[in-house]
Amino acid sequence: MAGNSVGLGGRGCRRRSVLRGVGAAGIGGLAGCIRSTDEIKAEGDAEELIQAGFAETGVEPPFRTTIAITENDEREQFAQLFKATLDETGFFDVSIDSREFRSHVDLMRNAASNDVNALFVASWTGGWDPDSYVNMLFHSDNHTPDGFNVGHYANEAVDDGIDAGLVETDPDERISVYRGLQETLVADSPISFVRFSESTHVWDADTVSGWQTYPLEPGAYYAVYAPWAGTYTELDEGSEFVGDLGSDIATTDPVSMTDTVSSHATALVYEELVAVDFDGESQPLLATDWERLDGTTVRVHLREGVQFHNGEELTAAHVAGSFDRYEGTIRETDVYDWYERSEIVDEHTIDIECWREYGPLETALFNVPIVPMAAIDGEYDLESEPVGTGPYRFGDYDSGSHWRLERFDDHWFEGDDTVPATAPVETVTLEIITETASRQAALEAGNIDFSYGLPSANVSEFENDDAYGVGRHIGGGFDMVIYPCYRAPFTSAKVRRGCNMLLPRTETLETVYDGFGQLAYTPISPLLEAYSDEAFQETIADEYVRPN
User: Fold this and answer.
1) Residue 369: is the preceding peptide bond cis (ω within 30°)?
2) How far apart are CA 440 and CA 436, in angstroms?
3) 363 Cβ partners below 8 Å, 6+ apart?
4) CA of 367: how far to CAs of 119, 132, 370, 539, in Å?
C-alpha cells in the first residue's frame, strides 16, 4: 500500500456502521462520523457556501451520499480522507463504495440516467493539446453515455469556450481562451481536480540502457525505439526486452481502442502521419512535411518507400482510407470532430480538408494510426492481429499471459547520427501482470526488465536502490472528483465549490502518493506549460479554492 495508513474516525468522533442506499444503483457503504443535526453550523468560507447551497436547493443536512471508487489502495485512502473531511462538517453523511474498474466505469456512464447519488473518483489522461483535457469532460454535447461528462454538467459559457478553442489557430489567442475557460470551470466546480499524476518508469539498470520516460501514459514503450524522437534503448545482455502490462489487451484495432493497455501493446506497431516527441514538439513520421493551404485544408507529403508489415507500400490512399474507417465507430470523434474528406493529389501527396478551422490539427494527426488497405477493405481483421508500419510487428499473444512483438527489419528508417538504422532490441515481450505487487516482485526477481505504474511509495524505494533506474515526468493525467450536477444539492455551484475548497489535496499528495505528482486546481496539466504554468495554478487557487 502506498503512503501512510489513514484513520477513519476524524478528530475524535465515534464511528458507527450503517448501510446507506443511494438511488437506483443501490450503492452502499460505511457511514462516517457527523455532527448531530442540532450542532450543524457553518464554520469558514467553504461551509458557508455549502450551507447556502443546501438552502438554495431545499436540502436538509446531513445529506447522505457516497464516494464511488475503483478497487485500489490509493483510491481507498483518498476516499477515506475526503469522507472524513465532509463528514466533519456535519452537512454530509458519507459512505464509500469500491468496485472493480469496469463496473465502476459502467456505473459512471449510467449514473445520470439512474439518478445515482454519488461523488465519483476517477482519473483522466489528456494529451498534447488543451482540448483533450476539457471537451469530453465538460461540453454538454458529451454527456454520458456517449461522452464522459458524467455529472451532466451544462454551462453555455463553457461550451462556447471549448468551441472557440477548437477553431482558434493563433497560439496566443488559444492560450487566452483556455485560461479563461479553466477559470470559469474552477469557479463553477463541476469537478474537483486533486493531483496531476506523474509518469513513473522503473527498470533494471544492469540490463537496460538509454531509457527515456515519455510523459503520456499510452506512449510508455516508445523509448524502445523512437527514431522520430532521437530515442532508442539498448540491452547489456541478450536481445529481448521484457516489460509488463497491467491488464489483458481489449483490442488491437485503433478504431476500437478505449483503454490505455491496448495502446501500450500496439504503440510500436502502428505509426501516424505526425508524432509528438518527449518534449511535446511535433515531428514528421509517415509525413515528411505538411502545410496549410487555407484555414480548413492541409496538404501532407508522405514518406516514400514505407512498407506495411503485410508487404503493402504506403500511399495516399492508405491515409484517406484510415481516416474514413473511423466513421460509425466508438472512436469516431477522434477524426470526425474535424475531418471532412481527403483529396488524393498523387501517390504520396494528400489534401486533408476539415469541416471547420481546427486549432489542434497537428496533434489530431498524431492520434490516427495509418493501416493497410487489407484492413480498410475489410479483408483483414485488426481486432485479432495488428498490422502497421512501425519498427515492430506482431509476434504472438497468449491471453492473460503475454504479448510479444518482433523487430520489423524492413522499417523505413535508415539511421542517423543519433539513432541506428536497426533497433538493438529484437524482441519486445510484455508480460500481463494485473497485480501491482506481482509486477514489483517480477521486477525484483529479474523476470521482467521494466515496469510502469507502480505505487508511489514503491517507486521511492527503487529510487534509493542503485540497481534500478527510475524515470519520473509530470504527465497528462489528473485525479478528480466528479459531482452529480444532475442531483441536488450538487445542482448548486455553491455546494460544489465548497466541497472543492475542503478537498484535502496536500494531505492526499503527501500521505497517499508519497509526494509524487503536483497539486491540481485546474484541468489542464502543467505539461502544457503555456496553458497551465505554476503561477496560473496558484492564482486560480488563491481566487477560488483556498479559503480567505
Assistant:
1) no
2) 6
3) 127, 128, 129, 132, 274, 276, 282
4) 31, 11, 10, 33
Per-residue CA distances from 230 to 183, 251, 331, 380 (Å): 37, 29, 30, 33
> Distance between CA atoms of 530 and 129, rounded to whole angstroms?
11
Q: What is the pLDDT, as a whole number, of residue 39?
A: 65
C-alpha cell belonging to residue 454: 507502480
Is residue 320 within a helix (H) or strand (E), and if so which, with residue range?
Answer: helix 316-324
- Residues 6 or more apart whose CB falls under 8 angstroms from that of 419 comprise 225, 227, 230, 231, 232, 413
- Beta strand 297-302 with 349-354 is antiparallel
What is the distance between the alpha carbons of residues 365 and 266, in angstroms, rounded to a whole number? 17
Please list, residue by residue across 323-357, b when 16 or more beta carbons sit within 10 angstroms of its beta carbon and e when fewer do.
bebbeebebebbbbbbbeebeeeeebebbbebeee
- Encode pLDDT of 348-370 as tens digits: 999 999 999 998 988 889 889 99
Whether residue 28 is predicted with pLDDT greater than 80 in this model: the reply is no
Give the pLDDT confidence of 222-232 residue by residue, as tens digits.
999 999 999 99
Give the Cα separation of 347 and 102 in Å (integer): 43
Distance of CA 158 to the CA centre of its chain: 21
DSSP 395-430: EEEETTTEEEEEE-TT-S----SSS-SS-S--EEEE
Q: Cα separations (Å) of 386 from 335, 396, 399?
A: 20, 11, 15
Q: Which run of H or E residues covers position 99? A: strand 92-99
Of 8-12, 41-45, 437-441, the poorest mean pLDDT is in: 8-12
Residue type for 109, please? R
> Residue 228: CB partners within 8 Å, gap ≥ 6?
275, 277, 283, 284, 285
Domain boundaries, the chain: 25-197+475-545, 208-448
Which fold would CATH assign to domain 208-448?
D-Maltodextrin-Binding Protein; domain 2 (3.40.190)
Grid coordinates of 390:
512501425
Q: What CA–CA distance (Å, rounded) separates 266 from 374?
A: 18
Relative to beta strand 63-70, strand 92-99 is parallel
Alpha-carbon distance of 391 to 418, in angstroms, equals 16
Looking at the structure, give the CATH architecture of the domain made up of residues 25-197+475-545. Roll (3.10)
The pTM assigned to this predicted structure is: 0.83
Residues 6+ apart with CB under 8 A from 62: 34, 35, 37, 40, 90, 91, 92, 93
Cα→Cα distances 334→34, 53, 324, 381, Å: 46, 38, 11, 20
pLDDT tens column, 421-459:
999 999 999 999 998 899 999 999 999 999 998 888 899
What is the DSSP-derived secondary structure letter of residue 241? E
Identify any residues that bridge with 204 across adjacent strands, giving them in sequence order: 468
Cβ contact 448:240 at 8 Å:
no
| DSSP state, residue 299 | E
